[in-house]
Amino acid sequence: MIHRPNKTSIRRRMNRICLTLILTLAAFGRPAAAALKTFYCDGINNNWSAATNWIPVGIPANGDNLVFGNSPRRDCVNDLVALKANSISLSSGYLITGNGLVLSNGLSCSGSLNTLGLNLTLGGSQTFSCNVLNAGLKLSGTVTLVGFDLTLDVAASVEIPGTMTGTGNVIKSGPARSCLVDRTVSMGRSRIRPASWIRRTVAACPRMLSAMP
Predict the structure, then answer these.
(1) Could you tell me the pTM of the whole model?
(2) What 8-state DSSP symbol labels residue 185?
């Protein structure tokens, strides 16, 4: 006698197969976790495309968190094309130039003046935070907001000899004595809050007396 599965058992089996297929596709389609890539260069080649300039070895990929810490060399060049970083962390004294990149989840610095000489395009609303005593930040490339808000939480000053453009808001946060050095902000003063934060030169910025106002 041949046993024929009934419709209920067939439906249950098909449901299990479909569920297994969905879970498998979801696992393959899930984006890889963002990697932590630490820049460390003690040689002549300070390009980001040099795999040995990174710990662990290998060039950054889209979505990675980039850390610039205790590298012997603190001038470096992004020669990668169309990189999309999740975040950037700086210690002190860095000069970063080269190709522009998209930044999605903010920037932080824990030391003295750092200069970003490359173009930045925001990939989301975020904060640039350099709120330790006397920390400053120079953005000498073009910063494009693309409709997102940028909060600047900086203890001393944010100098912008480059251009800040696009729709969105620039918002001051942190110590009240910090200020924005505005030379070529093309997005309109109405979207910089508060407007009293703006100065034309670094010398015109109030001096920091302490870490907090």
Answers:
(1) 0.74
(2) B
